[in-house]
Design goal:
The protein is α+β, with helices and mostly antiparallel strands. Helices cover 23% and strands 32% of the residues. The protein folds into two domains: 231 residues, Rossmann fold (3-Layer(aba) Sandwich); 111 residues, Beta Barrel (OB fold (Dihydrolipoamide Acetyltransferase, E2P)), CATH 2.40.50.
Length: 360
């Protein structure tokens, strides 16, 4: 399988720049999720990789092969859309085999072998002779996935394939995706606005903002060490807390949520802010080392039964996630601790690479 190399790729529609000067490499045999809010350029970027759009500037290569101006049929790309494109009068097996039969290099035996393998991997064997028109949307989408992977193309592109299916079907599709990935190591680009989907499926996430890739990294790196405040905000439910310093004294910064001052990293001469995720805020009933007093403004229950607390510490407001428990009373005083290993400092919205340390 080839890697996908983008060099200074841009796409302009009139005065609007949908994709803005992207240079990156998506490694061969990996799943890259293009993640971001609506209008960030992720679908336009995928369409250029597919050959459905031509870059206004820059080049696209599959390995060493320049495909920038090749039509989709000459790129060896398979694509799965939001809405499954199926032949409703044909059966499941016929839909999967149809594009394979057009390849004169494949014998009838090889066509059937590939189709049978896909049906097994996606757990569709029991549906092989059912007509597409008799299936629910989720199962049709599984068939669309099967038809794409059976072609064994260099690259498979997924354009938000779970957006229009019900929750149980969405989970089944995600399981099927992971099963086929375990057996068939094709290069995959997967467009989604669902961060949970991206964190579950991706080898790496390319987080997009305003036509650019703001960070491209494995999911755990993206979550724990976001390169920007945008990344910290977009990933997480809710996203990171961002707090401004209470004061700056020479090389020391003081924050309401920290019991001690922290050192100002060299070169940090812009607008500084502290980031910490709600699940990394320890909430204690009694005073403790490195803890500061906080008042509960409101408590609510999150998905999974966790408690989400809105807290006031001095003049700072932040959120904390705690395990399921009896809801703490609004107005109650508790004590919070933000451990420095989980704290990120941002300078003008960009993460400072140096670890956060106490001031001398």
């Amino acid at each position: 399988m080839p890697d996908i190399r983008l060099s200074q790729v841009s796409r302009v529609f009139g005065a609007f720049k949908a994709v803005d000067d992207i240079t990156t490499v998506f490694a061969e045999g990996t799943v890259t999720c293009l993640l971001g809010p609506s209008g960030c350029g992720k679908t336009t970027l995928m369409r250029m990789i597919a050959g459905l759009e031509t870059p206004s500037h820059g080049s696209i290569k599959f390995g060493d092969r320049d495909v920038t101006h090749l039509p989709p049929g000459k790129r060896d790309v398979a694509m799965v859309f939001q809405y499954p494109v199926m032949y409703r009068t044909l059966s499941v097996i016929e839909n999967i085999e149809l594009p394979l039969r057009r390849d004169r290099a494949l014998s009838p035996a090889e066509v059937r072998r590939r189709a049978d393998e896909v049906l097994e991997v996606l757990q569709l064997s029991a549906e092989r002779h059912r007509h597409i028109g008799d299936l629910d949307v989720g199962t049709r989408q599984k068939v669309a996935v099967g038809r794409a992977i059976a072609r064994q193309c260099d690259v498979i592109l997924f354009d938000e394939p779970t957006t229009n299916v019900e929750v149980h079907a969405k989970l089944a599709l995600i399981r099927a995706f992971k099963d086929f990935r375990a057996r068939l190591r094709q290069t995959v680009i997967y467009v989604t606005h669902d961060q949970t989907e991206a964190m579950t499926l991706a080898d790496q996430i390319a987080l997009m903002q305003s036509g650019r890739i703001s960070q491209c990294a494995p999911p755990h790196v993206m979550y724990d060490r976001p390169e920007s405040r945008f990344g910290g905000w977009f990933l997480g439910n809710p996203g990171m807390n961002f707090l401004s310093p209470r004061s700056r004294e020479g090389s020391m910064l003081r924050f309401d949520v920290l019991s001690n001052a922290i050192a100002v990293p060299a070169g940090a001469d812009g607008e500084l802010s502290l980031g910490i995720r709600p699940e990394h805020v320890d909430v204690l009933a009694e005073p403790a080392d490195d803890a500061v007093a906080a008042r509960i403004l409101r408590s609510s229950i999150t998905i999974g039964g966790q408690q989400l607390l809105s807290l006031l510490v001095g003049e700072a407001r932040l959120k904390a996630k705690i395990p399921p428990c009896e809801p703490p009373a609004d107005g109650k005083t508790v004590f919070i601790r933000c451990r420095l290993e989980h704290v990120v400092l941002f300078n003008d919205g960009l993460r400072l690479p140096a670890p956060v340390t106490r001031a001398a």
